[in-house]
Amino acid sequence: MVEDGLILARFLHYAATTTLAGLSFFPLYAYAGGEPEAFGCWRRRLLLWTAVAALLSGLFWFALATANMSGSLDDLADAEVVWAVAHDTSFGIVWTIRMFLAVVIIGVAAWGLRSRSSSSRNFMMPFLAAALLVSLAGTGHTQIEEGWAGVLHVTSDAAHLLAASAWLGGLIPLAVILHRYIGTNLNEGAKDVDRILLRFSGMGYVAVATLIGSGLVNSWFLVGSIPGLLKTLYGQVLLAKLALFGGMLLLAVANRFWLVPSMSKIRPDATDGSAAWSARLRSHVLGEQFLGWAVLFAVSILGTMQPSVGH
After folding, report:
1. Same domain for 189 and 224?
2. Residue 142 has what pLDDT?
3. Do residues 133 and 152 share a domain?
4. Which of 123, 203, 240, 255 has its CA 20 to 30 A from that of 274?
5. Are residues 165 and 230 in the same domain?
6. Residues 6+ apart with CB under 8 A from 239
7. Which pLDDT does position 310 carry in this prediction?
8. Which residues touch 144 (CB under 8 Å, ≥6 apart)?
9. Claim to verify: residue 112 and residue 146 sit in the same structural domain
10. CB under 8 Å to 18, separation ≥6 — which residues?
11. How far is CA 62 from CA 48, 56, 138, 158, 298, in A?
12. Are residue 117 and residue 256 in the same domain, yes or no?
């Protein structure tokens, strides 16, 4: 029961932190000028609620990790046990700092929503969200290695997390923009949407390259060999994750080289055709998001398993 809850807690926290970072990064590359105010208000509201979700899911993760270490959920009522985990373990120390950072992020997000100031060129929230996300690399399987190997593994895992958040988290505002474009609260013109799609694609190239490179490094540390990939449960779950990632890539390639060019060829006055292609693109984007969440669920399972190395 504790292990199943820990998988759920990990998934919720991964989803919240990747979304938080991706939403923060989006205006930095998606717009040549300022972010449209109506869209900015929506994004800032979602940032606040996502930050709250990151804090709550992080506390949920800590509680279940404490129960897993002590052996019983009943130990959560023992202040000495909770203090010992928070104060005397590397996980607890890192997690305490992370939860404090999550509270700071909530405050910054609430202030940004209240002030209604444009955050398209504000680097405070992206920096804080990135720090909360990459600090996950300081826990879990990256702590197996020591010395330079440990530094390389942590760095690779941090890069993996940042690339994943830029892609997955960026899909949410992209889907909203496409939804508005096809008839509900239209705020962007066809040329604006085309530019956003092309900038997102440019970011996607970097994110995918980073994911592949850092994924190979992480696999070397955690799997180590072909038999470890094929003959262990950890390797088989990793293969399932790679299959889901492959599905995301296929949808992304279809978007970039089929749907987006088709949209750009439609005459500006052909609203029906443009809306139809936009609807197809939005469906693909939502499909990418669904597969991305499935990838995060696989990662959550992998985090509770013994790596293939050494088997």
Report:
1. yes
2. 72
3. no
4. 203
5. yes
6. 229, 230
7. 62
8. 150, 153, 221, 307, 309
9. no
10. 133, 161, 164, 165, 168, 169, 296
11. 21, 10, 14, 20, 19
12. no
Q: Look up residue 26 and give its two tokens.
A: 């989006």
Query: Quick one: 149 and 131 in the same domain?
Result: no
Mean pLDDT for 41-62 is: 95
Place of tokens 């052909």: 270
Structural domain including 165 reads 141-311
Give the three-state DSSP class for 229. Answer: helix
Of 108, 138, 168, at which residue does a domain stop? 138
Q: State the residue for tokens 């593994």.
A: 153
Whole-number Cα distances in Å, 164 to 27, 45, 119, 212 = 17, 22, 22, 11
* Residue keyed to tokens 């992304």: 252
| Region of poorest pLDDT, from 44-58, 150-164, 254-268 | 254-268
Q: Are residues 25 and 113 in the same domain?
A: yes
* pLDDT for position 181: 56
The string of DSSP codes covering 22-65 is: HHHHHHHHH-SSPPPHHHHHHHHHHHHHHHHHHHHHHHHHHHHH
Task: Answer with the one of 138, 172, 189 that is the final residue of a domain.
Answer: 138
Residue type, 141: H
Measured at the alpha carbon of residue 155, what is the angle toward residues 246 and 310, in degrees to the nearest 5?
A: 75
**Tens of pLDDT, residues 150-201:** 889 999 999 999 999 999 999 999 988 887 654 444 444 556 777 888 899 9
Query: What is the per-residue pLDDT across 71-98, written as a single tens digit (0 to 9) for each?
Result: 778 888 788 888 998 888 888 999 999 9
292 lies in the same domain as 192:
yes
Residue 259, amino acid: L
